[in-house]
Amino acid sequence: xxxxxxxxxxxxxxxxxxxxxxxxxxxxxxxxxxxxxxxxxxxxxxxxxxxxxxxxxxxxxxxxxxxxxxxxxxxxxxxxxxxxxxxxxxxxxxxxxx
Amino acid sequence: xxxxxxxxxxxxxxxxxxxxxxxxxxxxxxxxxxxxxxxxxxxxxxxxxxxxxxxxxxxxxxxxxxxxxxxxxxxxxxxxxxxxxxxxxxxxxxxxxxxxxxxxxxxxxxxxxxxxxxxxxxxxxxxxxxxxxxxxxxxxxxxxxxxxxxxxxxxxxxxxxxxxxxxxxxxxxxxxxxxxxxxxxxxxxxxxxxxxxxxxxxxxxxxxxxxxxxxxxxxxxxxxxxxxxxxxxxxxxxxxxxxxxxxxxxxxxxxxxxxxxxxxxxxxxxxxxxxxxxxxxxxxxxxxxxxxxxxxxxxxxxxxxxxxxxxxxxxxxxxxxxxxxxxxxxxxxxxxxxxxxxxxx
Lengths: 98, 345
What we know:
The complex is a heterodimer. Chain A is 46% helix and 13% strand. The model of chain A is unreliable at 39-43 (pLDDT under 50). A 3-stranded mixed beta sheet of chain A has the order 2-1-3. By secondary structure, chain A is an alpha+beta fold.
C-alpha cells in the first residue's frame, strides 16, 4: 500500500489503524474531511483521531469498510457482528455516516 | 462511544467552542495569519455538533444550532462583508464582490461540514432548507439584493466602454455574471431579471444612437460592413463573459436597431443603395446584404421588393442570374411575376 493512498485512523486508546483512503471514504464524515478543498494540513499527513471511538469498535469499522467495498463489487458475503458490539457499532456508524 | 458516560454539553459551552472554530475560519478567509484547520479541529467541531444533537431532551439543541448557523453568516456579513463592499464603487466594488462571493462559498462549505449532522436528520424531519441553501440564501438576501443594481450598472458601463474600443477586464465581468447565475440556485430568473433585461435595453439604446448617425454619414456598403462587424463583436462578447442564453436575444436587438429600423432608408440610398449595387455588379456587397437581411424575420422582403424593380438590362447577366437565383430559392414573395432569366438575357 503506497503511503499516499492510505489514511491513519486512531482510536480513543491511541491504537492506529492504517487503511486505504478508498476504504475510509465509505464514511461520509471521513470523506468530507479528506476532500475539503485545500485547507486541511493533516489531510496531507492523513491522520484522524477519534477520541470517542474505542479500539474494538474502530477495528470492526475498518473491517466493515473493506467488506463494503467488496460487497459493492459483487461479492455478496455476510458481515458478522457480535451482538454485544451492536449498539456501540450503530452509534459509531451514525457518527461516521457510514 | 457510549451515551451513558458522556457529559451533557450545555448550549452555552458548546456554542462557545463552535465560535472559536468560526472565528478561526473568518481569520483564514480575511487573510490573517492563522494556521490551517487540522483534522483534529474538524473532528472536534463536528463531534460537538453531533453530541449536542444527540443528547436527550431538553438538551437536544438541534433547533438552536440550526438558528445559530444562520446567525453566524448574518453576523459575519453585516459586520465585515457589507461595510467593505459599501465603501467601494464601480470596478473596485465588482472586484470586492467577486472576492467576497468566493469567500462566502468557502465559508458555507466548511460550516456546513461542521454542522453536517443537522443535514442528516433534523432538516428532513422538519422539512427545512438544507445547510447549503441556508448559507447561500444569507448572501442573497443581505448582499446580492443590496448591491445587484449597482453591480449591474457597473457591468453595463464597462460593456459600453468596451464597445467604444477600451480594453476591459473580461475575466472580472465573467466572474461577476457568474454570481448572477449562481445566486439563482438553478434558475436563470435572477440573471434575466436583474441583469439581462437592463443590458438588452442599454444595448438597444447604444446601437440606436450609432445607427442614427451612421445612416446619415455612411454609404450602404460601409454601413453594412459596420453592422456585420458589430454583430461579430457582440457574439464574441457572449462567448467571453455573457451567459450563452443571452446570445439570441442580444443579436436580435442589435439586428433590429441597425437593420430592421433603417432597412428601407439603407436600400434606397441614391448612390450606394440596392440599385447602385446591382448596376455596378457589387457581388460582395450584395451577398453581405443578403447575409445580414436574411437573419431578420421578413428581412428579405424589402430587398426582394428592390430586386423586382430592377430591369434586367441594368445589370450584367452574371449579377442578375446570381441575384435571381438567390431570390428564387429564398424569397417566396419574389416568385410572383418572375422574369424568366433565359428569355430576358
